[in-house]
Amino acid sequence: MKYRILIISLILLSILSVIFQYHYRVEVDSRESSDLPNTSFSHDLFNQVLQEHVEDGRLDYAKLKANPEQFEKSLDQLAAAKPDEMSYNEQMAFWINAYNVLVIKGVIDHYPIKSVKKVKLFNGFFSRLKFQVAGETYSLDHIEHDIIRKEFVDPRIHFALVCASISCPPIENKVYLPETIEERLDAVTLKFVTDPEKVRLVREKRRVYLSKIFKWYKEDFTEGYEGVADFLSDYLSPDDTEFVLAEDVEFHYLEYDWNLNDIK
C-alpha cells in the first residue's frame, strides 16, 4: 500500500512538473540568419496579411494559421530590420507594427485558444514568449514598456497596440506608416474613446465608465495632459467634455474581456 501511494505521488509530481515547466518556460521564436532577407525593410507583407485576414476589428486566426507563408516572410523581415537607422516616425510605426504582428504570431503558435491568458500563467503570454526583432530577442512586454512607452511618450499608442482580446482596441486592417502616423493615432484614439463599450458616460448617475487601459496606464495620460479626463476632452463633444471634467463625476472601470478577438 505504501509503495502504491509513493508511486501515485511520484506520477502526480511528474505531471505537475510538466505543467509547471510548460507554463513557466520561455519560448523563443528563433530564425536562422541565413534565411533572413537582405532587402530593405517594408511593411507591405504584413499589410497584405491584415487586408486578407481582418474584418470589423477582428482577425481570422484559423485562416492565417492554415496559410502562414506570407505572414512568416513578414516575420523574417522584422527579424532582419534595422530600426536604429530609421527616423523617429519610422521607428514609431515600426515598433507599433512589430508589437501587433508578434501578438498575432504568439496566438498562431498556440491556436486554437480562447484567450491569450490561457497560453501562459500569470500574464506569461506577454513576458515568456520571445521573438526576434532587428537581430535581438524581445518579449511583448519589453517592446511595449521598455521601447514604445519609453521612447515614444504618447498616450495615443495605447489605442494602436492590440493584445488580441475583445477589450483591446480593434485591430486595423492596415499597418501604421510613418507619413500618416499622427493622423492614424488620432483616428484610432477617437474610435476608442467614442465606443460606448470602452468609454461610457452615465449622466443620471454622474459616472464615467472607462476601459481599464486608462487605469493600468494612468500615468501615461499625464504627459501633456492633467490626467485622463483632460485627455478624453480632446476627443469628446463640448457637452461630454463638460461632463467628464465636472468635479462631482466619478470614474469607474469596466471589466476587461480577455476573450480572443477571433472571427467566428
> What's the total number of strands?
8
| Poorly predicted runs of 5 or more residues | 13-24
- Helix/strand/pairing class, anyone? mainly alpha
The biggest sheet, with number of strands, parallel, antiparallel or mixed sense and barrel status, is: 3 strands, mixed
Tell me the span between the first and last alpha carbons.
Answer: 51 Å
Pattern of helices and strands: HEHEEHHHHEEHHEEHHHE
Shape: globular
Radius of gyration: 21 Å
Helical content band: 40-55%
Strand ordering within the main sheet: 1-4-5
- Tally of helical segments: 11
Strand content: 5-15%
Mean pLDDT: 91
Domain unit count = 2
Explained architecture:
With 264 residues, the protein is mainly α. It has two domains: 23-175, no CATH class; 192-253, no CATH class. It has eleven helices and eight strands. The chain has helices at residues 2-24, 44-53, 61-66, 69-80, 88-110, 124-127, 140-151, 181-193, 213-216, 228-233, 238-245; strands at residues 27-29, 54-55, 58-59, 129-133, 136-139, 199-202, 207-210, 250-253. The strands form three sheets. The protein has a three-stranded mixed sheet with strand order 1-4-5. The chain has a three-stranded mixed sheet with strand order 6-7-8. Strand 4 (129-133) and strand 5 form a beta hairpin. The relative contact order is 0.12. Residues 13-24 have low confidence and may be disordered.
